[in-house]
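Long-time lurker, finally posting.

We've been working with Mitochondrial intermediate peptidase (Taeniopygia guttata) and I want a structural starting point before designing mutants. I don't trust myself to interpret raw outputs, so I'm hoping someone here can both generate the structure tokens and explain anything notable. Sequence follows.
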Amino acid sequence: MRGSSSSSRCAAVRRAGTRMSQGCSLMCVRGINRLRERGLFGVPELNCPEGFQEAQDKALQESEQLVQKACSTPPGPETVMIFDQLSDSLCRVADLADFVKVAHPDFAFREAAEEACRNIGTMVEKLNTDVELCQSLRRLLADETVMSSLDPETRRVAELFMFDFEISGIHLDEEKRKKAVDLNVRILDLCNEFLIGTHIPNKIDKHVLPEHIRYNFTAEGNYLRVAGLHADCPDDLVREAAYKIFLHSNSQQLTRLEELLASRNNLAQLVGYDTFAHRALQGTMAKNPETVRQFLEKLSEQLAKRTQKDFEMMTKMKMKLNPHNSMLMPWDHPYYSGVLRAERYNIDPGLYCPFFSLGACMEGLNSLFSQLLGISLYAEQTKRGEIWSEDVRKLAVVHETEGLLGYIYCDFFQRPDKPHQDCHFTVRGGRLKENGEYQLPVVVLMLSLPNSARGAPTLLSPGMMENLFHEMGHAMHSMLGRTRYQHVTGTRCATDFAEVPSILMEYFANDYRVVNQFARHYKTGQPLPKNMVSRLCESKKVCAAADMQLQVFYAVLDQIYHGKHPLKKSTTEILKETQEKVYGLPYVPNTAWQLRFSHLVGYGAKYYSYLMSRAVASMVWKQCFAQNPFDRAMGERYRREMLAHGGGKEPMLMVQGMLQKSLSVEDFVDALVSDLDHDFETFIMDS
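Top reply, 14 upvotes:
Generated this for you. Predicted structure of Mitochondrial intermediate peptidase:
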């Protein structure tokens, strides 16, 4: 049974009127006559914060009945169905609460959702150490006659449920099982505390900073509040100050991280694993930390010369713009790589935004999905109380022959207290219900788009447009991963596979044939010129090796933190050593970047997943879609081989089915490195 906290959650991952639909004729409004339900996502209890307690109590009561039913049912396919019902009853509350606790504008709702997450999570951990419940599943798995009669998906789901028992310590004695539950609950709390700490701004006496740069930071009396790295600021001194202040070590956050890492290691060893990484990587494409280490080492070797060349280019640019201080520092990398891109390819995001209105981008996605998968998106009227902000839009996802597949709630715009992050949340997983009907999946896509001027469309930068495509890739995975069991539906799959569909969508977003279908100037209707798209794509390869090397550094650091314990040095000393060895830019004294590394919560021991998923997406794009991004036959193959199974099939088998070959670590590395090569025609044209 998988819980719904940030560390082990079911969700795999992670303005008024016309703004979304402006210029988007395909997204017509469909009126559907239904009873006026009140409550978030149409859940009647959730019309007020107190409703979470009612929904939680109802789920816990239902789970007790299902546990009794599972324990008294003879071994057979019904056993797996009952376990999935049990998982679904808890996840329907926990997944929904997982979103509400971070995104709802009302603090009372967020607080109630947080409490529901904790209580459901605690129940999940108790169920995962329930010996009698486990025995009912073990009887099924031990019955060879019954197991041989089950279809592959049912067998895999049964095995996954048993795996959840095993990694929770079901084989231990009662005292140790209780210790495992306590550790899991403590880890959930530490994850929440650490995550909050990663976003808290730092303050400094304003007199410490030169007067001419103080205006860059928010004043609070005699203090200045620093809430980020100001990575795009052209003033070197501002970036340096922001880096040193925002990343300054915090003893409370350091203690949280140390306890979190130690608790994870204690739990892993308690249930029989050498390290937390060994426990976390079970069932992934990589399978074990040794493969991850090999992947990262080989990738780092291949990137070394390119990265050094990138750093040399950045250093020359810094010398050109700031002759008095030419040493390249960590706060320089994002800024000077951007300067180099803009200079070499004349890239000004402001030139692109008028072509990427939100309505046009949604129409482009609609067109792509229609041609590739036979799917259309329709805006649907929401009921009173169903949404948490007036600018949220609800989309019905409809297949041309299969009908309604599910719903996507689009929470796209900035608002106070809303996290500045782009992510996908599963609110309800799809499954085949006992009455033969299919429980439709419900997801939320959360972006941080700027609020547009009155009467004008929302205009996206190229990066925002790419992020929209990325998150919509997750949504399509959720809609098309129509498994029989919600335990493996959609994005409920291995972390290093879950990012493949979303990253693959980035390749579509950077292909001129796709972009040309929707990118029109919102005033003149002029299409985006091909050479502008080519220059934009090629500009992303400038300093891309150094950018990738930075990701390797993060992934290596994550592996060390979740490797053998006790750690040989403090987390900050490990950061310093790893940064200088793997990344190459110097560590800055008195900083502790790891205390802002929020991915240590949801991606603990799995940060490498972004790189491995990108490698798979690159191979799928080049082999299957580069020749024709609208190939319907290939789209259907993609759905059949990779999207349809959710987590109901081994991830590497899905990749092999799509690519029709087995893959080595070298294949993953080569795919990533080959993406760094410039397109010869564009490179010569713009040199």
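Before you design anything, note these points.
The chain has a mean pLDDT of 92.
The two ends are 56 Å apart (CA to CA).
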